[in-house]
Amino acid sequence: MKKSIKLAAAAVLTVAMLSACSDSSTNKDTTNNTNTQTENQADNTNETTSQTSDVPAAEAPVFENVSVHDPSVIKVDDTFYIFGSHLAAAKSTDLMKWTLIDSGVADGNVLIPNVTEELKETLDWAESDTLWAPDVIQLADGKFYMYYNACKGDSPRSALGVAVADKPEGPYKDLGIILKSGQWGEISPDGTVYDATVHPNVVDPDVFFDKDGKLWMVYGSYSGGIFIMQMDPKTGMPLPDQGYGKKLLGGNHSRIEGPYMLYSPQTDYYYLFLSYGGLDANGGYNIRAARSKNPDGPFVDSEGQDMIDAMGTPGTLFDDPSYAPYGVKLMGNFTFDSVDGEPTGNPYAIDYGYVSPGHNSAYYDEKTGQYYLIFHTRFPSRGEAHEVRVHQMFMNADGWPVVAPHRYGGETIGKYATSDIVGDYKYVNHGHDITADIVRSSVITLSEDGKVSGAATGTWKLDGDHNAVISIDGVDYKGVFLREYDESMETQVMTFSALSDKGVTIWGSHVALEKK
């Protein structure tokens, strides 16, 4: 189960509420391929001065990909399950090889076999024929509770409810709607007339236990922001007299959504993950984080800024510059471009990266102490096609998460020497903006004397077994070094991921020379 510590105003304004909590391009995800990513080749490559080859994988990991938009994870026994928009779900025992369970809001879906009738009230209220990002949790009675939702799409007219099943794969039976939004001109759950700039769009739920065993639900997308409310751990329903709950951040139609909470026993913080921007390939979706000592906040970013101030300017729509400065940016659009001397036999080796990664969940393994970030992403030159990706995540020296640059391939972090780290790296600075632009890698060199040269200059240091302390152009970054599998180069490479106190993430992936 999700561990008891989730170890884990006008209609013109609402037309643009086409939220990003769901992939609106299709009602049924169909991609379920093994290593099918194909990219168009770039015309130009980077050059390096002193390329150093890395160690080939003794046994390359095997990946089997699925398309589940907005994947929310739960582990049951030895199996990981992810549930996403359009009633899609998949499972894996190793976070690398995924099997699609089902997808599509149509009768016959194994999760809710009679879904059009079972959730008729929800679909009718939302004036929709599909469902958006759900969350599943196991409560003390051993049953699985699915928090489902539907949204009209061009307005925050949404309904959020809960269904229950004896098994994670269903069949789920509806227990009813628990929240509605978008009721223009009518009284909302907090007793005031619904206002989309102040009140939430009731989608994107994440239900979790805190470290003391209390049950909470965090939710929201665009509109009035991200909210949290306390739930009854026995029934899975909201405790009475909360209205919409407590606001954590957002409002005035900020493009912020997909909240997910993870408690870390290592740092004793609750981490609130968020997605900024729009979900499509041109939307600039990116993953952010904030933290608090309490599940209901207040949440702050690495600069100490209170996230309650992360909102749009009143009277504006999607005023990205107002809230872009808030939150630690973990990743956005990027490519690791091939450099001279690297192998190019892999069809997507030259233009490998992500576009609009987001709407993540996260998992902490109590036994191993490993953190995982689970999300969907689009890809360069592939339009709106999307797949699930899993990356390892680590806490840096300041207690902030940093995400490994490559997808999880079964690696564990090790004890490294300077000789393991020196050499040329494909370097990405994720910045702090919300943009559809793709950050293309450049080449830097980490020298044995602790200097950084090339496209950026500074210093680097290996602190302890694997901690990274890197100064680039006068800015200090703290993170980790990690040897992991580079799928595009089909070999093991040294990488680094580090974060500045301004909430900016940098990545490096070692250049891999083709074997002669």
From TrEMBL:
<dbReference type="InterPro" id="IPR050727">
    <property type="entry name" value="GH43_arabinanases"/>
</dbReference>
<protein>
    <submittedName>
        <fullName>Glycoside hydrolase family 43 protein</fullName>
    </submittedName>
</protein>
<feature type="region of interest" description="Disordered">
    <location>
        <begin position="23"/>
        <end position="54"/>
    </location>
</feature>
<feature type="signal peptide">
    <location>
        <begin position="1"/>
        <end position="22"/>
    </location>
</feature>
<dbReference type="InterPro" id="IPR023296">
    <property type="entry name" value="Glyco_hydro_beta-prop_sf"/>
</dbReference>
<dbReference type="Pfam" id="PF16369">
    <property type="entry name" value="GH43_C"/>
</dbReference>
<comment type="similarity">
    <text>Belongs to the glycosyl hydrolase 43 family.</text>
</comment>
<dbReference type="Pfam" id="PF04616">
    <property type="entry name" value="Glyco_hydro_43"/>
</dbReference>
<dbReference type="GO" id="GO:0016787">
    <property type="term" value="F:hydrolase activity"/>
</dbReference>
<keyword id="KW-0732">Signal</keyword>
<keyword id="KW-0378">Hydrolase</keyword>
<feature type="compositionally biased region" description="Low complexity">
    <location>
        <begin position="27"/>
        <end position="49"/>
    </location>
</feature>
<keyword id="KW-0326">Glycosidase</keyword>
<comment type="pathway">
    <text>Glycan metabolism; L-arabinan degradation.</text>
</comment>
<dbReference type="InterPro" id="IPR006710">
    <property type="entry name" value="Glyco_hydro_43"/>
</dbReference>
<dbReference type="InterPro" id="IPR032291">
    <property type="entry name" value="Abn2_C"/>
</dbReference>
<feature type="domain" description="Extracellular endo-alpha-(1-&gt;5)-L-arabinanase C-terminal">
    <location>
        <begin position="405"/>
        <end position="508"/>
    </location>
</feature>
